[in-house]
Amino acid sequence: LERSSRYHIPQETRDKTRDKEAQEEALAPRDEQRRWEEQLLGAAALRFGARDAARHQRHPEYPLLLEEEEMVQFVSAARLEGTDPQKSLQDARRALPIFPFREELLAAVGQHQVLVIEGETGSGKTTQIPQYLHEEGYTRAGMKIGVTQPRRVAAMSVAARVAVEMGTKLGNEVGYSIRFEDCTSERTVLKYMTDGMLLREFLTEPDLASYSVIMVDEAHERTLHTDVLFGLIKDIARFRPQLKVLVASATMDTERFSAFFDHAPVFRIPGRRFPVDIYYTKAPEADYLEACVVSVLQIHVTQPPGDILVFLTGQEEIEACVELLQERCRRLGSRLPELLVLPIYANLPSELQARIFQPTPPGARKVVVATNIAETSVTIDGIVYVLDPGFCKQKSYSARTGMESLVVTPCSRASANQRAGRAGRVAPGKCFRLYTAWAFQHELEETAVPEIQRADLGALVLLLKSLGINDLIHFDFLDPPPHETLVLALEQLYALGALNHLGELTTLGRRMAELPVEPMLAKMILASEQYGCTEEVLTVAAMLSVNNAVFYRPKDKVLHADSARVAFGVPGGDHLVLLNVYNQWVASGHSLQWCYEHFVQARSLRRARDVREQLQGLMERVEIAPSSCGGNLDLVRKAITAGFFYHTARLARGGYRTVKHQQPVFIHPNSALFALQPRWVLYHELVCTSKEFMRQVLEIDSSWLLEVAPHYYQAKELEDGSGRKMPKKAGKSREELG
Ligand code: CDP
Ligand code: MG
Predict the structure, then answer these.
(1) Model confidence over 565-609: pLDDT tens digits?
(2) Atom 24, ligand 1: residue with shortest CA distance
């Protein structure tokens, strides 16, 4: 605990801790693999009444794990009992800040078509308002109430909670719909869904006729999809006077929403908040991850009871932090009161996510290491301390280069304040900011730039075009996207063949819009028909959807895990490795044991299989017959290239640069091609941490680029800068091209 002067921790404690650390140094590490297995088996032991036998028949190993929804529901119920066994569910509902305003709110909804609702996180907007409306009769005559959430996790967990409160099974009256997972039925009247899913519903039901109420929740997040929903919903509200529109948001931006919806009234739910003391560091932190770990331990050792919430930027960082914390706690051993370290991020398996909601056992302290998701989308009871390094991961898009990447950036002041607010929900709290007061005032932006102004708009433009909205420049945006980004999206869709030279949707474009994936991925999938490898490409697409969670690498088995991973190696690159993993898993009979032995996460593979099945269904809908290329994986690589020819880089003078824009990029160290450094590569995505890393990299032949995108590439661009001869194969195909 070297740099513990940060928050004035008494010297005494410091020395004690250091001693302990030294003494416990020799303690044998716990077997993480075993623990991981226990976790999974523990989940399996909880098995009760698996949802339907049909699924079991299709996938015999399914009952091994509890169905996700059931698990969420179960944990929500457990949490309810745990938090306050005396209190009935209805009492808990009545205790929420929104409850005293129930009648007033219903009256306002009755009076106005559009209502903006503002209230602190945790006041009951998401869980209560839809129930009030349901009780009031808005779901009569088969009408539904739709509630959008920017995050899948929130949609699922909130739906689970509401199902418990209404005493129904998730998927019946209350359901949720997220991409590749529909947990609703004929009976569903309260439908929680991601904003992207509601957007897609416009494709099948352009006026949302089956909805009596649409609640756009977490509006302040200003995600791309939420922003577009604003425009579309405003439009349909005009000719559907009966439709009620609610725009719910934390205490931010509500005036803007009101102005956008022709000055709709704002309904404010007064918050109940305890004071939160804010502490800043005296000097900037060089390594905020390390600073987090140290600070958590300091809080744990010196502060009165209360759980800790740490905000980090993403999965990798969170896992690193959790590991560091667990390791230090292990070293400090039993002399340290128990510290439960729980991660939460979008890709985390839901039964592990649900653990953050379980009440902390007496005598222990819980530390939740979270992404932005805990800022406003989920409420964790019992948090008293917040640790805020002041960063978040944001999409950033350059219209000049057409490159979208995830970048770790300082969060906004509004975010920082939301984060601090999480500490004051149950008692007076403390927020430790790992930056200086000066930085807060001068370096943080007031609010975040809405996603629509920093994202690739390809998917969105494709969707709007297929909704018949052709004039994108004059679309009613709350904040318009940059002109260049729109133009670039149109150009990309043209290059992909989704639009013709008049900007109209082509047959290919229409098919692409049917697939709920990014245009490049959609193109890749559709191109597999022509190359006779739909089976393989569907697998690749499905595996890419879980890409960062396929391999498991426990800290004490790093060598084993890495060699297991290397053993999956096949020439060609990461996409083919993923294909290989999946195929071997299928060949093992979807064996869980096989997954353990090969350090592969069974859950991710199962999810990939679900995704794959759905994509397969969609392929049937666009009338593409299944085909397989057998061992000829070049065909698979060509199909991938047909979708991702924008994402290419060439090795020259020791480094990679993107082909079109000469941007320096690097192969991610986790890539199978990291050591090989082939001359021409294609990447699935760019992640910007210390550098621009290409993640999921595939070796390609430069001549394929001419074959798949002759209107985008010219032969001259693809000549080898090194002066060396082109690979033989490449030369040949060029001749073939004539
Ligand atoms: O939407 P808002 O932030 O205003 O509040 P909410 O999500 O409706 O949450 C109201 C209360 O429901 C929270 O204080 C939680 O105690 C509880 N809740 C829960 O137990 N489980 C969830 N998944 C969501 C909310
Ligand atoms: Mg909410």
Answers:
(1) 999 999 999 999 999 999 999 999 999 999 999 999 888 899 899
(2) 158
What was the ipTM of the complex prediction?
A: 0.98
**Res 52 pLDDT > 60:** no
For 624-660, how does the pLDDT look when each residue is reduced to its tens digit (9 = 90+)? 999 999 989 999 999 999 999 999 999 988 899 999 8
With the most atoms of ligand 1 within 8 angstroms of its CB, the residue from 69, 73, 127, 307 to mutate is 127
- At 361-396, the pLDDT tens digits run 888 999 999 998 888 777 788 899 999 999 998 888
Comparing C-alpha atoms, which of 385, 350, 351 is closest to residue 365? 385
Residue 323 CA to residue 344 CA, distance in Å, equals: 14
Give me ligand 1 centre to Cα 132, in Å.
15
Range 231-234, long-range pairs (CB < 8 A, 24+ positions): 231/475, 231/476, 231/477, 231/478, 232/199, 232/202, 232/467, 233/208, 234/260, 234/261, 234/476
Q: Whose CA is nearest to atom 20 of ligand 1?
A: 161
Ligand 1: residue of 68, 379, 381, 422 to mutate (most ligand atoms within 8 A of CB) is 379
Q: For residues 656-690, b (16+ Cβ closer than 10 Å) or e, as one string?
A: bbbbbeebebbbbebbbbeeeebbbbbbbbbbbbe
CA 289 – CA 316 distance, rounded (Å): 11
Residues for the chain: how many in total? Answer: 738
> Cα separation of 639 and 269, whole Å?
53
- What distance in angstroms lies between residue 365's CA and the mean position of ligand 1's atoms? 21
Ligand 1 neighbourhood includes 131 CB (under 6 angstroms):
no
Nearby residues of 470 by Cβ (< 8 Å), 6 or more positions away: 503, 504
* More confidently predicted of 145 and 661: 145
Q: How many Å from the N-terminal Cα to the C-terminal Cα in the chain?
A: 68
Average of per-residue pLDDT across 146-163: 91
Beta carbons of 577 and 568 less than 8 angstroms apart? yes
State the Cα–Cα distance between residues 639 and 644, nearest whole angstrom: 9
Cα–chain center distance at 31? 29
Phi, psi at 720, each rounded to 5°: -80, 125
C-beta of residue 383 within 8 angstroms of C-beta of residue 426? yes
pLDDT band at 119 (very low <50, low <70, confident <90, very high): very high
Relative to beta strand 403-410, strand 391-398 is: antiparallel
Centre of ligand 1 from the C-alpha of residue 548, in Å: 29
- CA distances in angstroms from 726 to 633, 654, 675, 678, 701, listed in the order given: 21, 18, 22, 13, 10
Give yes or no for residue 124 CB within 6 A of ligand 1.
yes
**Half-sphere exposure (CA, 13 Å, Cβ side) for 653?**
4
Which two tokens mark 65?
């794990």
The percentage of residues in the chain with a pLDDT greater than 90, rounded to a whole number, is 60
pLDDT at 6 over 60: no
Helix (H, G, I), strand (E, B) or coil at 652: strand
Instruction: Give me the residue label for tokens 């009247």.
Output: 189
In one-letter notation, the amino acid at residue 429 is G
Residue 4 DSSP label: G
> What average pLDDT does range 80-87 have in this prediction?
44
282-315 burial, b for 16+ CB within 10 Å, e for fewer?
A: eeebeebbebbbbbbbbbbbeeeebbbbbbbbbb
Pocket test for ligand 1, best of 161, 269, 380 (most atoms within 8 A of CB): 161
- Cα of 404 to ligand 2 centre, how many Å? 29
Spatial separation of the C-alpha atoms in residues 426 and 400, rounded to whole Å: 48
The pLDDT tens digits of the residues spanning 445-485 come to: 988 899 999 999 999 999 999 999 988 888 999 999 999 99
Residues in Cβ contact with 521 at an 8 Å cutoff, skipping those fewer than 6 apart: 515, 541, 544, 643
Residues with Cβ within 8 Å of 684's Cβ and at least 6 positions away in sequence, in order, are 544, 547, 574, 575, 644, 647, 694, 695, 696, 697, 698
